[in-house]
Amino acid sequence: MEGLPSTYFTGFLTKSLSFTALSPSAVITPHQNRGSKTLKYISSRNLVICSSRSSSVVTLLDYGAGNVRSVRNAIRYHGFEIQDVRNPKDILNADRLIFPGVGAFASAMDVLIKTGMAEALCTYIKNDRPFLGICLGLQLLFESSEENGPVNGLGLIPGVVGRFNSSNGFRVPHIGWNALQIEKDTEILDDIGDHHVYFVHSYRAMPSDDNKEWVSSTCNYGDDFIASIKRGNVHAVQFHPEKSGDVGLSILRRFLFPKSRGTKKPTQGKASKLAKRVIACLDVRTNDKGDLVVTKGDQYDVREQTKENEVRNLGKPVELAGQYYKFGADEVSFLNITGFRDFPLGDLPMLQVLRHTSENVFVPLTVGGGIRDFTDANGSDAVYAAEEYIKTKVKTGKSSIEQISRVYGNQAVVVSIDPRRVYLRSPNDVQFKTVRVTKPGPNGEEYAWYQCTVNGGREGRPIGAYELAKAVEELGAGEILLNCIDCDGQGKGFDIDLIKLISDAVSIPVIASSGAGAVEHFSEVFMKTNASAALAAGIFHRKEVLIQSVKEHLLQAGIEVRI
Question: Which residues are catalytic?
Answer without folding.
Answer: 135, 240, 242, 283, 418
